[in-house]
């Protein structure tokens, strides 16, 4: 089993879609698809490819050292021989005989430069002799449009309360990055500070990525679930 097949199998076993994994990593879904096909050419080089693998490993329950070892064995440019790299990059070329440059070439080039400089000086001299017309500033009256009056819509006291199937409250006890997806839309992606709380509602489901599951308390539909993981644990959960 190659590296791409290992990634694909682990993602499917974790019941994580390509789009969810791409959102958690903040990378394109197309890049993940290429990596699962064992194609790492679009990662931007060995350093970026290894970085992606280190970020993917905890989300799929894999050993990052094992992934890096597979990558180095199958894809790393550092593992190929110098001769192979020279052939791949067409570095080895047939030497050509050095040609002597005739003295006429620099002489002709110098003459052309002198002619160009002379023409420029003549044009500048003729331009400076012509009087420059002075622009006359004309004051233009400014019409200030009246500010429209915005009428706030009346609040209907009979409007029923929210009937969302999933209501969630997140309360951070420490700084933590989260990514909240509701019905396929990223409604919030950023950092919550210690003591900060946020509420989210959905008619179907709410999917949340936590960079540190031990730094945030979760309440769903009035039920306090507490902290869903340990300190520093990367976690994604979907609530329906």
Average of the residue pLDDT scores: 80
Number of helices: 7
At the first level of CATH, the class of the domain at 3-82 is Mainly Alpha
The proportion of residues forming helix, as a percent range, comes to 25-40%
Shape: elongated
Q: What's the CATH superfamily of the domain at 3-82, by name?
A: lambda repressor-like DNA-binding domains
H/E element sequence: HHHHHHHEEEEEEEE
Low-confidence stretches: 80-98, 153-162
Domain Cytoskeleton protein RodZ-like C-terminal: 169-236
GO molecular function: DNA binding
Biased composition (Low complexity): 131-160
InterPro entries: Bact_Cytoskel_RodZ, Lambda_DNA-bd_dom_sf, RodZ-like_C
Question: What does this entry look like structurally?
Answer:
By secondary structure, the chain is α+β, with helices and mostly antiparallel strands. Among the domains are: 80 residues, Orthogonal Bundle (434 Repressor (Amino-terminal Domain)); 74 residues. The protein is 36% helix and 20% strand. Strand 2 and strand 3 form a beta hairpin. The two termini are 35 Å apart.
